Amino acid sequence: MSWNHRVIKKVDPDVYYEIHEVYYDEDGVINGWTQDAITPYGMDLEDLKLDLTHLLSALDKPILELVDGKLMEIK
Known about the structure:
Blueprint: E1 2-11, E2 15-24, E3 30-33, H1 45-56, E4 64-67, E5 70-73
Parallel strand pairs: 1-4
Antiparallel strand pairs: 1-2, 2-3, 4-5
């Protein structure tokens, strides 16, 4: 199993975006994600910078949207 940070678009009723950890099975199919958005965290400033860099990498990937309980890439 692998995971990465991804932006998820949500509509409730307003549209907003959050970064979550998204988990994939061996075939690369999404099989889960964190319920709550991810918050930057670090034991020191360097740790925090590294975590922010990982979170920023989510902005370079296609946005996901929750549709009928499943995450789908927005085309």
